[in-house]
Design brief:
3 helices, mainly alpha, globular
Length: 95
C-alpha cells in the first residue's frame, strides 16, 4: 500500500510541474520571449496544450469567464495541492 501512496504523490507532483511549465511558457510566449515559429517551441507548446486541455476544459465549465484572464490553471493547482494535503493527512491508511 505504501507504493500506491508514493505513486499517487508522484502523479500529483508531475501534474503540478506540468501546469507550472505551461503557465510559465504561456507568459514567455505572450511577452514574445519565445516564438511559436520555432519548431521545438511549437512542439512543446502543442504537447502541453494537448495534455492539459482535457483538464482545463472541465474546469472552465465552472469558472466564470474573466475576459482575457484564464483561471483554469490556478484552479487546477489548488485542486492538486488539496489532493496532496488529503493524501498526506490520510497516509496512515496506506501503511
Amino acid at each position: 500500500m505504501t507504493s500506491i501512496f508514493q505513486i499517487l504523490m508522484l502523479l500529483l507532483n508531475i501534474v503540478y510541474f506540468i501546469v507550472i511549465a505551461h503557465v510559465i511558457m504561456s507568459w514567455l510566449i505572450n511577452f514574445q520571449v519565445l516564438n511559436l515559429r520555432q519548431p521545438l517551441v511549437a512542439q512543446i507548446w502543442d504537447g502541453l496544450n494537448r495534455l492539459l486541455d482535457p483538464i482545463y476544459s472541465r474546469v472552465r465549465r465552472f469558472v466564470p469567464n474573466m475576459g482575457g484572464l484564464d483561471l483554469a490553471p490556478l484552479v487546477v493547482l489548488i485542486a492538486v495541492a488539496m489532493a496532496r494535503i488529503v493524501l498526506m493527512n490520510n497516509a496512515a491508511a496506506f501503511y
